[in-house]
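Re: weekly structure request thread

Next one in the queue (56 aa):
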Amino acid sequence: MSDRFIVKSKEHLSGGIIKIVVDTQTGVNYLITSGLGLSGMTPLLDKEGKVVVDKP
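Done, posted below.
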């Protein structure tokens, strides 16, 4: 990871890893998965379907 992104949380789950990273320039939270043969990255959504954004 670069200085632009920080790891907010990290969990191991059934042989895979789930991370929430924050873009320090925009505040947008992303969900990143790896392991279990699949990897992906997507914006993290709240219960209303809106992108989770931290205040800078």
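The mean pLDDT is 92. The radius of gyration is 12 Å.
Next request, please.
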